[in-house]
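Quick one, tokens below:
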């Protein structure tokens, strides 16, 4: 099953959702601002992406600027920050099994769709 962590207010996320719809494959949409991932889920997502948690942070968001700009946190603390402020999570994230991509640009979805 394919999962997309989606924010409908984001044009890149909407484009990724359209690509999934066109693929004809089954997928699940997680509106992560309404239903944020917990620490275990987010840790698993970061591992599937093969990146450090800091690479998943949207540094232009006001929550980052107000609370974290200029701070050095551990990987676990960055995960906690994203759980507390899900708006900080880069989007869209598309996952299938052990594979995951941040679909920026949208064409990166093809790595998941095959």
């Amino acid at each position: 099953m394919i999962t997309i962590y989606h924010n409908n207010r984001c044009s890149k996320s909407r484009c990724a959702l359209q690509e999934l719809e066109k693929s004809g494959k089954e997928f699940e949409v997680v509106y992560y601002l309404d239903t944020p991932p917990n620490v275990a889920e987010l840790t698993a997502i970061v591992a599937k992406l093969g990146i450090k948690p800091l690479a998943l942070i949207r540094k232009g968001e006001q929550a980052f600027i107000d609370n974290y700009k200029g701070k050095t946190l551990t990987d676990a603390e960055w995960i906690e920050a994203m759980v507390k402020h899900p708006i900080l999570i880069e989007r869209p994230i598309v996952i299938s099994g052990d594979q995951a991509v941040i679909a920026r640009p949208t064409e990166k979805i093809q790595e998941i769709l095959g």
